[in-house]
Amino acid sequence: MSLFNNLKTNWKLFQLRVLNSTSTQLQLLFFVLILSLGSGIILTLGVFSYFLIIPPAISFAIALILIVSRQWDRRLQEVDVPTGYEYVNALLDSEGQYPTFSRGSFAINVTVQVPDELYLDNTTKLDTLVQKVAGELFSFLERTSNKVIGYRVSTTEILYMVEFPEFYNQILIREKSSSVKTDIQFILNSLSKKLSKSYSFTIKTSAGISIKGYHSDNASSLVHYARFASRSNYYEAEFARVEIFDIKNHEEYMQIKTRRHHFTSFLDTQNLKIVFQPIYGVKECQIYGYEALGRPNNKALPISITELLNDSEAMGMYYQLEKSLLHLALKTFEHLQGRSVQDKYLFMNLTTSTIPKYINDGFFEQEMFHKRITVEVTERTPIYPEDLAILRQHLPKNAQIAIDDFGTGYSNYLTLLSSHPDLVKVSVEFIRGIDHDNHKKELFQSIVTFAKTFGTKVLAEGVETAEEFKTVLNLGVDYVQGYFVGRPRVTLDGISEKAIGALKELGVCYDEK
Fold first, then answer.
1. Mapping DSSP to helix (H, G, I), strand (E, B) and coil, where does residue 27 land?
2. Long-range contacts of range 28-34, CB-CB < 8 Å, 24 or more positions apart?
């Protein structure tokens, strides 16, 4: 087993040497050339032997190694697409390559960021640059520690295993790590500035630190953690950034990675469900409609709808998820509604960025035809009047457009002024505590007055108390939505008993008809 591990390790190290050394590649090419010429000369002289098969076979094998080196590069420096973090397998899989260090020793990973054209066009220049960074840092570490071992992990990445004088408690380890971080930050920052001037382009360096006995006792874990830390927000620094591994950030990353690994399962509507929240029409004295709210339905993978939407956006799959939610909402609503609620509007959310895709797919004509729909345009992306105009052209005639979260983000008075939507949903931030906040009352009143100038109805979102409910009713709201009126449910329930009681108290009709 030991022999197998050694062979495996040496093979991976050979791959790294081929990838990272131009001279090794040239030597292999020269060797292929000599073998080919020798074979050709012997054949020209008319000498034939079965042994002549060996040189071409060796030449072919070496040529194949050089050709597939690009594939090695992809495997050895894989990129986790959902999160963007890179990880190198070659050394992480080789536990035996790491010497045993005392408690308090460090794994330090340094990465050099340079323009893509340098990486692609001038490997010799890049190699020289990285070696300058590596040499400067190595000299510092050698002066301050008992033992330093450096590994060339990739073209632009250096790993150091550093044994500092042994520390026995967490406090001393933290103090030492803070000191080391400050020193390395200073060295890398100074060097990056100097090299940027020399090479006439900006060079950035980032380093990550993990500590034995504090983060882990396992060498592979320490390397993984140091590499993780070196990729945490390095772009925020002008020249250099050094981070000490943070277990909380890593746990969050692992959660994101797990979620995104299973993301496609949510496109299957079996892992999604729709709940409906009633919207009460004050003037209609009945439920006006229901907002369809998507919820993940995978018990094995706890995730909120916000996390799911954020993941879909990060992966370039937002439209696919949003479309699945809309399709499921229409299907579920059609299945649930009876004769008594056939005239109710179904409120559904979409972003302006996805409108052209729905039009190309014919979604509005095929899925929404002859249905009472209110399309809520969310403020997740900019809301432009021309987008709403195009949306209105392709929606069924009886469909409405509502601006969601009015007053926040991209939803504002200019949107209302230029697009004339059928409804505006006033954001919960303006409703929370409105009953005892005169400024919020004045602002809400101005929204109602301004909206009615254009014939636009006003809906108050997030109403949770009787006082908030009574206040928005007195200020002239048209529609009310929130926990006080009715919580989201998988059924089409009526408004809550508390809301009916408040309406009775105000002398307002409450019959749901």
1. helix
2. 28/62, 28/65, 28/66, 29/66, 31/62, 32/59, 32/62, 32/63
pLDDT of residue 200: 81
Single-letter code of the amino acid located at 121: D
Is 394 within 8 Å of 365 (Cβ atoms)? yes
pLDDT at 341: 59
Q: What is the pLDDT of residues 120-178, one digit of tens each?
A: 555 677 778 888 888 888 888 888 887 888 877 677 888 888 887 666 566 777 777 88
Provide the whole-model pTM.
0.64
Task: Pick the range with the lowest mean pLDDT from 37-46, 188-197, 417-426, 439-448.
Answer: 37-46
**pLDDT over 70 (residue 408):** no
Which residues fall within 8 angstroms of residue 76, CB to CB, at 6 or more apart? 12, 15, 16, 19, 88, 89, 90, 154
Paired with 78 in beta bridges are 87
**Residue 87: what pLDDT?**
41
Residue of 397, 374, 401 lying closest to 387 (CA atoms) = 401
Asked whether 245 and 468 are in contact (CB, 8 A), the reply is no
Find tokens 């980032």 and name the residue: 206
Question: What six digits make up the tokens of 372?
Answer: 């009472």
d(CA 255, CA 56): 51
Looking at residue 78, its amino acid is: E
Closest residue by Cα to residue 354 from 377, 332, 372, 374: 377
The confidence band for 504, taking pLDDT boundaries of 50, 70 and 90, is confident
Class of residue 182 by CB neighbours under 10 A (exposed 0-12, middle 13-18, buried 19+)? exposed
| Cα–Cα distance measured from residue 249 to residue 200, given in angstroms and rounded to the nearest whole number | 35
Which residues touch 4 (CB under 8 Å, ≥6 apart)?
none
Task: Give the tokens for residue 351.
Answer: 């972003």
Helix, strand, coil percentages (3-state) for the chain, rounded to 5, are: 55, 20, 30
**Secondary structure class of 454 (helix, strand, coil):** coil
Both tokens assigned to 487 = 């919580």
411: left (phi over 0), alpha (psi -120 to 50) or beta: beta
Question: CB-based contacts of 374: which residues, under 8 Å, 6+ apart?
Answer: 289, 345, 346, 347, 348, 399, 400, 401, 402, 422, 423
Q: Give the C-alpha separation, 493 to 488, whole Å.
A: 9
Residue-level length of the chain? 513
Q: Which of the 8 DSSP states describes residue 99? A: P
* DSSP string over 201-265: S--EEEEEEEEBTTTBS-HHHHHHHHHHHHTSSGGGSSSEEEEE--HHHHHHHHHHHHHHHTTHH
For residue 198 the two structure tokens come to 């020399």
Please report the DSSP string for 471-485 in residue order. Answer: HHHHTT-SEE-STTT
